[in-house]
Design brief:
Two copies of one chain form a homodimer.
Chain A lengths: L1 H7 L5 E8 L9 E2 L3 H9 L5 H9 L5 H8 L6 E5 L4 E2 L6 E6 H32 L4 E3 L7 H13 L4 E2 L2 H7 L9 H6 L3 H12 L4 E3 L5 H12 L5 E4 L4 H14 L6 E4 L5 H7 L6 E4 L1 H4 L9 E9 L5 E3 L15 E6 L5 E7 L10 E3 L1 E6 L2 E2 L8 H14 L17 E3 L3
Parallel strand pairs in A: 6-7, 6-11, 8-9, 9-10, 10-11, 15-19
Antiparallel strand pairs in A: 1-5, 1-12, 2-4, 3-5, 3-17, 12-13, 14-15, 14-16, 17-18
Helix pairs in contact in A: 2-5, 3-4, 5-6, 5-12, 6-7, 6-14, 9-10
């Protein structure tokens, strides 16, 4: 596309691309935007290196002028977007890119890959932390997704309220709280469970979490208390009827005098399993597979669509396609969330004419992220995760209570195009 | 775990870990192993760098002796596994790692992340290429998954029979055939569809593929033929009733004299949609979202379990956990696929005693990949993708015809533990 536009001279036309999803995954009430920070981080260093250019040349993927364009590539446009952690709805313009056709085109895959993945994980994570109602949720899914997705997934989970991650690389890269656990293999490595528990407590102290379901849970809990004493940090259950076991393990721990020893559970948890465990005496949830795969919705299905472009007379005009079932609405959209007197969200408002938002009691949603190619201070950085997590809490708290329902339903607020 | 084992002196115990899945995703008849080549590539350079070690030290994640162990880390063990592209079933030991506890433990996340992700994509891809019966399937999903997963997904898709990918980085890294397409944005960038088609043909020649559904399909097809002439490569349909449109677009192209112009279709395709289009005059399928997200099964749910370890007397003995619903079978498993006289697969055979496989008409499945820390020649490399793709074709051709059914069912061959 860039090569053909370069030859036709249309590559320089000023364009506006908008990133949005046409619909939420089936039954979901809201989505959570994540990945904006990662996108800005990568945009800062986005260049084509010699090896990449050589490949494109040798394989004749593009012609000489296009190679020159790519060799000099540096994004010079302007980007607005919803702040990371914000809730979104169908057609919310979560990232808006203004620039030449060629430069905006180059960024499409980067933007969509990051936002589609990270938002899928954050949207699932938000349902889990919502239903866990303050009990810590811990991200442990690295083994069930691509090795690099895993690092991004941990970050997205923390944006949406997870308390920590077992992914040390995510901890290092994004300053996340890291946690760990021992596996059945550690117990089985030793000649007896007792030796394994002693080895763990000797090295990590009594505050550690002992895994008690390798052989016999009751015997293991008694053994754990015997070895670690009253300050044993926690026991972990990873199989069987977690709610039932948590009940009697709690009673057993209390009877043995270990009232402060916590119970943490793992084993294919998701928002529904967590809901089912909320009545049980569980202190924290370790979530893996279902979190990093978006709990049934592994992508957010966001698209990146041209909504306005300069015509041959140099005038920026709205454009839209008419493809069946995939039609688009032309023009740059200003977005705001309508709030009632109590601060409760009522609708997602989109307007081509920003004046239409003036009379509304509404919170504006887009913030400037990049101006003339420069990433704005505070728009990115490691500290972004904490700020995004705070924004997620505030944004979700603002939604109608039905947002928290796990049953399938419509988006909890409608999206209104004010210009129609 | 490593820190505690180091302190207890059990880190040096010889161990065997096996990678397998307890079950296939609901309804699937077989799985396809992918990622072995990527794992070996990463294993070759697997070290902990100064920045990583400094993080672990500063955050007190591990103690001094563990830091020293990690600083010197280099895998010295032995690995066997199914060859990449091979079909697998529940409990197939697709990767077996023998080494000290500590070194085998370090590799767990790397192995599971890669095999779980890549095999999920390859397993979905195999169903798509199976049902497409020779019509080329093209990978176009980069935008719907994490930016690095996308590169691995393209590779896995080609292992399972895809003819090419739009992911240029995957093309560069793994020597895959790359393809491309133009988007609606390219059409809308121009003042008219005619100008867009002319720009594309001017730059890319008449053999290019023109996207014809931005405005009016019939008008666009006529325009495409007018501009590109009888040698127009293909037209792409991306919305609406693809089967119906393909039918009349084919008739229109033929009537206009463009019998050699192909029709390629895209738009949320998966194996079911492809099956529904097989009766239509479609020449190739572009598949995105559903491919890179595993078509409903985004992970293979493989686990990495300790099945044998040296005891305090230095004797290697089988170990197994008894966790409810997650029990494991101890001991190193030899694997083979039973074949009848016609070469048709009948069962996946697992045996602790390899002698039990001798009397069977069966094909042995495990091959040596790493010996004493050295990656064996031919076990990896860019040429691995083509070899894996050939193996995939052969392995799937060997399965009962029911393997190709899209309806939900049991694994197409049972897994038999011969020692029981």
């Amino acid at each position: 596309m860039i090569q053909a536009a370069l030859k036709a001279g249309t590559h320089r036309r000023r364009c506006v691309f908008e990133t949005f999803t046409r619909r939420l995954p089936a039954g979901r009430r809201y989505g959570v935007l994540a990945g904006t920070g990662r996108f800005l981080e990568q945009l800062a260093g986005f260049r084509f290196d010699d090896g990449q250019l050589a490949f494109l040349e040798e394989q004749r993927v593009v012609d000489g002028p296009t190679l020159e364009f790519l060799a000099d590539f540096r994004f010079t446009g302007t980007i607005h977007g919803y702040a990371e952690g914000e809730a979104f709805f169908p057609h919310s313009p979560v990232l808006q890119v203004e620039g030449t056709f060629a430069e905006a085109c180059v960024l499409e895959t980067l933007i969509l890959s990051i936002l589609n993945h990270d938002s899928a994980v954050a949207s699932a994570a938000s349902r889990m932390t919502g239903v866990a109602e303050g009990r810590p949720c811990l991200e442990m899914g690295a083994r069930r997704t691509h090795e690099r997705s895993a690092v991004a997934a941990a970050r997205a989970a923390v944006v949406a309220g997870f308390a920590g991650t077992s992914n040390l690389e995510a901890g290092r890269r994004y300053g996340l709280h890291t946690i760990g656990t021992s596996a059945h293999a550690f117990t089985m490595l030793h000649d007896t469970e007792e030796q394994a528990f002693r080895a763990q407590v000797d090295s990590l102290g009594t505050g550690t979490t002992l895994l008690v379901d390798t052989y016999d849970v009751e015997a293991a809990v008694r053994r754990a208390v015997e070895i670690a004493g009253p300050r044993l940090g926690a026991v972990r259950l990873d199989s069987g009827d977690l709610a039932g076991q948590a009940g009697w393990v709690r009673e057993l721990l209390d009877a043995l005098g270990n009232r402060d020893t916590q119970i943490t559970v793992t084993s294919d948890l998701d928002e529904y399993a967590i809901a089912g465990l909320q009545a049980a005496p569980v202190d924290s949830y370790g979530v893996g597979t279902r979190l990093v795969t978006g709990s049934g919705a592994p992508t957010t299905s966001m698209v990146y669509k041209l909504v306005a472009r300069e015509n041959s007379d140099g005038v920026l005009e709205p454009v839209a396609k008419r493809s069946l079932g995939k039609g688009s609405v032309g023009g740059y959209k200003h977005a705001a969330r309508r709030l009632d007197a109590a601060g409760r969200a009522g609708a997602e408002l989109l307007a081509l004419d920003p004046g239409l938002l003036e009379g509304e009691s509404a919170r504006r949603l887009s913030v400037p992220l990049v101006a003339d190619g420069e990433i704005l201070p505070g728009a990115t950085g490691a500290e972004g995760v904490e700020a995004a997590a705070a924004r997620h809490r505030a944004s979700v708290a603002e939604l109608p209570v039905a947002a928290r329902r796990l049953s399938e339903g419509e988006p909890v607020i409608p999206t209104e195009h004010l210009d129609h």
